[in-house]
Amino acid sequence: MGLEHFAGVELEERNKIEYLYGDYATGDYAYTIIIANTTVYLGGAEFPGVPEDRTIVLPKVSNMIVSKTDGGDIFKYLVRHEFGHSFGNLDDEYVDEDSACLLKELNDGSLSDAPKGNVLTYNPGSWFEGARYVPTGYWREWEDSIMRSDYYATTFSPKQKEIVTQRLKEAIRCNEY
């Protein structure tokens, strides 16, 4: 498809993903991983319906695109991190002013003002400030997790895990494990 990243992808391209991969969905939930063979480290993910104004039409599929520069720890981290976005609907928890600036410049609705469930706009006590690409104004549960790490975190924080577990329960319609 010629895609490496979701940031700035036009609605027509997102609809093409739904057309190509969404029709196999037999229920309310399906998942697509697109691996881009590239030497550039990039990832991107989207949970259908978020953001409402820039998503695939009648979504059936959570999508993620990951670049595969190698099969090592960085690739494994990237897959887990993008899964957190696309299936868990989790925010990034790292600080990256360039990304914040780029998303504002693209003005594509990729980052709404309201944080997702793993990030708060206040400190409930013992949380760490800095998330959603900026150093202040947002708090995260752990110092380092899959949604923050620079390639080496191996797990979700308890709050992130709670969100992903609940989404899995809803997806498979199971109340107990």
Mind explaining what this structure looks like?
With about 180 residues, this protein is of the alpha+beta class. It has a single domain (about 10-170), classed as Collagenase (Catalytic Domain). Helices cover about 30% and strands about 15% of the residues. It contains four helices and six strands. It has a three-stranded mixed beta sheet with strand order 1-3-2, with helices on one face. A hairpin with a 2-residue loop joins β5 (about 130) and β6.
Note the topology.
Elements lengths: L10 H11 L9 E6 L6 E4 L15 E6 L5 H14 L10 H10 L12 E2 L7 E4 L2 E7 L17 H15 L5
Parallel strand pairs: 1-3
Antiparallel strand pairs: 2-3, 4-6, 5-6
